Amino acid sequence: MALTKAHIVNNIQNRLCFSRKKSIELVETLLEIMKKSLENGENVLITGFGKFCVNEKRERRGRNPATGEPMTLAPRRVVTFKCSGKLRDKIDKKEQRKQTR
Amino acid sequence: MNKLELIATLKNEANISKAEAAKVVEIFFGNMAEALSEGERVEIRGLCSFFVKDYKSYIGRNPKTGEKVVITPKKLPFFKCGKELKERVDY
After folding, report:
1. Which of A59, B6, B12, B34 has the most neighbouring CB atoms within 10 Å?
2. How far is CA A37 from the centre of its chain?
3. What is this structure's pTM?
4. A53 lies within 8 A of chain B by CB
């Protein structure tokens, strides 16, 4: 089962003794702060977890995969995530990892 | 924006103490890291979802020297941007 906002709200409520309403509000506020920052083109860097980056994509030529028709894709901005080394090791369960870069 | 700035902004916007804001941020990202380390999916509506992807062993090359290197199987988190965030970040 996937971890969702509801689980995180429960944990905040139980561990910090906030009311249910306040716990929900805190999580929503936190999300809104992150989204606003990314919306303004500012990266969000969480030590030990990773980095949410805003990347500018230039205009490029693509194809409609259904019809094969060439078309121009407009420039756009996307969010990418760069996993921190600490989180990567935690997921990979490796104490030490050779530097691959 | 880094973690400290995130904590400070949360403190101001939610009217809680700095220690409380720090704990909220810790729990939020701690929960996600824990779930991923157990191979569980994470789904935060409006922001993003993560799942752990298994990569098989393969023979790669050191881009600098051109030498062949064996890459052992690994697990990496895969990030997928949420719909709301995607629409808000784009022009």
Report:
1. B6
2. 12
3. 0.85
4. no
Q: Do A31 and B47 touch (CB under 8 A)?
A: yes
Q: What is the CATH number of the domain that holds B41?
A: 4.10.520.10
ipTM of this complex prediction, to 2 decimal places: 0.86
Q: Tell me which residue in A12, A43, A46 faces B3 most closely, judged by beta carbons.
A: A46
The answer to whether the beta carbons of residues B58 and B71 sit under 8 Å apart is yes
Domain span holding position B54: 3-89
pLDDT at B9 over 50: yes
Bridge partners, A51 (sequence order): A45, A82
- Rounded CA-CA distance A42/B72 in Å is 35
Alpha-carbon torsion, ordered A85, A90, A96, B1, to 10 deg: 20
Domain count of the fold of chain B? 1
Interior/surface letters B6-39, b for 16+ CB within 10 angstroms, e for the rest: bbebbbeebebeeebbbbbbebbbebbbebbbee
Say yes or no for a CB contact (<8 Å) between B89 and A5: no
| Residues of chain B contacting A90 with CB distance shorter than 8 Å | 33, 36-37
